Sequence to fold (230 residues):
Amino acid sequence: MQTKIDETVALLKQAQDEYGPDLVFASSFGAEDVVLIDLISKNASGIRVVTLDTGRLPQQTYDVMDACREKYGLDIQVFFPDASEVELMVRESGLNLFYQSVKNRKHCCEIRKIHPLKRALSGAKAWITGVRREQASSRQSMAAIEDDVHFGIKKFNPLIEWREADVWEYIRANDVPYNALHDQHYPSIGCACCTRSVTVGEDPRSGRWWWEHEDGVAECGLHASPLKKT
Ligand code: SF4
Fold:
């Protein structure tokens, strides 16, 4: 475990040394992301922390954001969707458009997540994420350092080799604030309307967009872009 922590800290420091103010940690405040917030606060403070508020997040996510802000004295930059884009989308397709078709769901993720993420990453040369290989079959080929072709910048995945047990061991040992929904069988937490709990043995991300799983576990597009290993 200590070896994994040391390797993760080394990668965070490497990213900070190489990219300085052009480095961004995009956090959704899931279990992996609070581990990174703790590690960054203790070992690489100064890395900019951004998050997206889609407007449909569960209250428990706001609670953990504020708990981290308080515990670590974090300056968290919250990016919101463009109000006029949301208004047009809702006017054309309704508030619950994501249940109607995959196309509508992707459109909603585009407006509420991808566009704000593009603004959050604007000017950045590298970003950090909390993805782990074990989380989904779609993440098997991811590496610790990648070229993110979609956003045209470097991508660091310092927890790529961590197992779920490692994440929780770290959270408990370091008294890290975490999203209360994890205690209700939500391994992966996104928007309230598009996330549900999972049962034992299910893919950890199967609670996301569960109604469209015929083709496997869905991704929102934040980490599904074409990537190549470096
Ligand atoms: S997860 Fe659901 S509500 Fe959130 S942006 Fe995507 S489709 Fe919209």
Remarks:
- The chain has six helices and seven strands.
- The pocket of iron/sulfur cluster is lined by residues 54, 56, 98, 105, 108-109, 112-113, 190-191, 193-194, 220 (CB under 6 Å).
